[in-house]
Each structure stands twice: as structure tokens, then as C-alpha cells.
Amino acid sequence: MSIVKINALTVPAEQREVLERRFASRAGAVESSDGFEWFELLRPVEGTDQYLVYTRWRSEEDFQAWMEGPMKAAHQGGGGEGGAGGGAERPKPAASASTVWSFEVVQQAAPKQP
Asked: Is this structure's pTM higher than 0.85?
């Protein structure tokens, strides 16, 4: 069965738009990664300032390969708002804290087809 990684990002109200814009412009890097199955950015509705970044992977090894390859490159100045290169200053993070939760999928269900 698949594994799920949820990154809980604490995002101050004034940074929500920035965070959503950065995710919207992420250039689809994760979608072409081997073993990637699903992505969702979940915006809090009430009671919390935490966004949840939900990704689902075929295996822990696939997730780790993405972390060490495309994700690492993207977070070391490989694009995004303000970009890097040419001495450009990296934009400050939109989130003030981040915690990654890991889960194994042990049961799942999909809507029944008529």
C-alpha cells in the first residue's frame, strides 16, 4: 500500500496569499516524480492557522528520492518567486513552522460506480 506525507505549515494570515501563489507556480515538479500518486494543498477554514500539504507516494523510497532530488533542488534556489541565481535574494518563507507527518495507507475506499 501507499504512504502519505502531510506537511503541516503554520502560516500567518498575512502570508496565506503568498503561500498559495508559490504553490500554484511550483511548475508541477512533483507530478512527474517516480512513485508520486497525489497532491493536495489544504487551506484552513476555521480554528487553525495550519495549511496541510498532502502527498501520496508508492513507497517511502520514492518519497525519499524526490526529497533528495527535485524537492531539494527547488528549495535551494531553483525557481519560484524572486528566483535564485544572478545573486537574487531568496524570498522569506511564507510559513513560520513546519512539521511532517508520515502515514501508511492500511485501508482505502473509492466511490462506488453505478
From this structure: no
